[in-house]
Give the backbone structure.
Amino acid sequence: MPVAIITGASKGLGRALAEALAGRGWDLVLDARGGRVLTEAARAVAGHGARVEALPGDVTDAGHRAALVAAARGFGGVDLVVHNASALGAEPLTRLAELPLEGLRRALEVNTVAALGLVREALPWLRESATGTVITLSSDAAAEAYGTWGGYGASKAALDQLAAVLAVEEPGLRVWAVDPGDMATDLYAAAVPEDDSPRPAPADVVPAFLRLLDERPASGRYSAPSLLEAR
């Protein structure tokens, strides 16, 4: 069975993607900071017939990242790494003039540095896999200048560049930076609590990720809404 590591998997898109992959026969190593919620998510994912190991922890911790990869190796290897864990830097979001620098550092550590750290930890086994794949979660804020989204957008722009360079340096892998588009998630609610406009559920976005895994296009940056429209 193929094996995936998914960070930020206790809820939202991470959990929805985990359930979809479990239904397709993937074994999964799941990460999140909240142990109780992660355990509940892992139980639901395992109900789809997958082997699941849930490891609560902080992706900015090198020891935790090593444990995630070790757990995947226990299942047979690492075929897919999905870095879905994200930090906003401030909740709610704020203008750069008021953005705490510690918040910016946290966003960069979680969204960018931890992503590279996890990929580096998993890289020997990704290279051995016939379908070694890295998916990083991007954002339109990485490419557009939206007021109050500067810190978060900067961390995602840096992540996009890391993904692009990784694809050049590791041509045997597929490396996709995916902008999932607007979703109804706790992260968005924390970012902009006054915005109660309807948004797609994370499960509605998952088919875009499954399409990438099925069709395996070239490494690059993709938009989930565009992938869904082209189906």
User: Anything to note?
Assistant: The longest strand covers residues 27-32. The domain at 3-229 is CATH 3.40.50.720 (Rossmann fold).
